[in-house]
Design a protein that fits this description.
heterodimer, A: 58 residues, B: alpha+beta, Glutaredoxin, eight-stranded mixed β-sheet, 13 helices, 27 strands, 28% helix
Amino acid sequence: MLTDPDGFYEALLDAHAGLSTEESQALNARLILLLAHQIGDQQILTACLRAATQRNAP
Amino acid sequence: MTGLSPAGYDLPVYEYVRPPEMTGKPAHRHKVAIVGAGLAGLTLACDLASRGIACVVLDEDDTVGVRGASSRGICYAQKSLEIFNRLGIYPHIRDKGVTWSVGKVLRGHDVLYRFDLADGSLSAQPPFINIQQFYIEWFLVDRIRELGRTDLRWRSRVVDVRQETDFVTLRVETPDGSYLLEADWVVDASGHASRVRQSLGLSTKGELGEDRWCISDVRFQKDLPVERWTWVEAPFNEGRGVWQHLMADGVWRIDYQMLPNTDPNEASRPETAARRLRDQLGPDVAFELVWVGAYSYRTQLMDDFRCGRVFFIGDAAHVKSPFGARGGNSGIQDAENLAWKLTLVLTGKAPLALLDSYHAERHPAAVENIRVTRRSGRFMAPRTAMERLFRTALLDLAPDHGFARQLLNTGRMCVPHRYAPSPLTTGDAGMAVPNLRLDEQHLGDLLAGEGAHFLALWCPRSPEDGLGADLRALVHEGWPLRMQTIQAALPPLNLSPGDVLLIRPDMHMAARLTKAGIEDVRTALARASGHV
C-alpha cells in the first residue's frame, strides 16, 4: 500500500509536465523497465501484464 | 596449410575416386552413410572413426567450405572445442584460430556493456575460438584420413533415398553416372536445402526473416583489441547494428545490418562495402576485402529428427539466425550426441531404443536455440515503433543500471543444452560437465578412446568403501562403464562422500546419485543407455 497515493499520482503527472508525447512515451518506457526491475518477481510481472492487457480487450 | 593468398583462400581439392559399386568390385552394405561433408557431417564421421566405427561420407563437392566463399560459421564454442579436443584436432584450431573471451556492446563510441566469458570458466578449452569454418572442416578431413576407417567420397551427390525394411538405399550421382548404395543407417547432414529430406517427402517448418545483413571479411592495418564488438546503433552504419570480430589469417568479420528492403546485390558490391569500411575505419587505414556477401535470417525446424533409418543433423534438421553462434555449434553437438549412441548400438552394447533418444534430446535443443535467437533478432531489429521505444529506453538506462545492461540482447552465446527432461536422464541432471582437470588428467581424457562408455565419478566414504568393488562388478558384467574416484568438493561438482556422478560419453551428466547404492547406479546406467 502506498502511504501517499495522491502524492504518487501527482509526482507521476509532474514527471511528464512539459514533455512532448514522444518524450513522455520514452519516459514511460524507462519507468516501466525500472519498476519491473524493482518488482523483481516474474509472476507478479506476468500478472500485471495480464491485467493491463485485459483492459484493452473489447 | 596454404590458407589465404592474394587471390583469396587456397582450399584443398579432394580427388574423386570411382566407387566399388561402379567398378564391378564387390560392394558391401555400409553400416552408416553420412550425406554431406560439412561441419556436422564431418564431425560425425570423425567421431565415429575415433570410436572405431567405419562409415561412408558422400559429398557433392570436392573441397571444404563453399567454393570461393569464406562466409559461414566463425565462432566455435567451448563445448565444440572440447569435442574437437577429444577428436584430436583441437591443437590445430587453437594454433590457427583466435582465442577470445571479451565482448563489448557499444552505442556510438560508448561502451555500454563489457563481458568476459572466461570468468568462471572451468574447462581446459577456452570459451571461444574464432576461425573460418572451412579450416575446421579441413582439419576434420585430415584427421579422418589419418584414422583411416572412413570412405570419403567426393563429387557424389545423393539424389534419391528409399527406405527398405531394414536398410536404406541411396541413389548417388557421380561424374561417371549414378549408382545405388546401401546402408543400415543414413545420417543426413546436407544442410538447409537437404535433398534427402525432400526425397523422403518430409517438410520443414520455417520462415525467412526480413532483417538483412551484409558480411564483409576484411584485412586492415589498424591495431584493435581481440574482442567481439557489437554496435546496437553504429554511427558509421546509419544507426543500425554492426558486429566486428577477428578470425584466422588476420581477417576481421564485419557484419552490417541493412535496411529490410536493401537490394542484396547492391549491398554486396565491392564499392559499397568499401564505402562502409571507409566510414568505419577512417580515411587513413588501408584495407583489403577478402569476401563480401549479403544474407537474411532463416529459421527452419523439422518435426522429427529421425525418419525410420534416417537421422537428420545440423542445418538439415534446424536452422536459426546466427546470434550467439548457435548454428554450427549445435550441429557439432548433434553429431556428438548421435555418434556415441550409434557406436553403442552398432557394437551391441545398447538396444536400438537408444537411438530414439537422439530426437528426444536434440529436438528440444533446437527449439531452445530458435527461441533464444528469435529474441536476440527482435532486439536487434525492433518490429514496431513501440519495440524500438523500449530498446531506446534500455540503451538510455544501460550506462547507470546493471539490470538494463543484462537486457541488452545482442545474442546469447551458445551453451550446451541441458538434457532434462530426457529419457536418458535420472533426476536433477542432464547438464554438460566442463572439461575439468581431475588430478593427472582432464575429464574428457577419461571418455576418449575406441567404443563409447560412461564414467562413474565417485567419492569414497572411506579407503575401504565397498562401492568400488560393486562398480567394478558392473564393468565385469559388460556394461560400457569406467570408474574414477575423485575428491569431494571439486568445483563445480561438489560431491559428498558416497556420491556417484554418472557421466555420459558426451560429458553430459546422466545422473547425480547421493549416498548411492549399486542398484541406483545400475538403474541409472540402464536408463542412460536406452535399456528402459
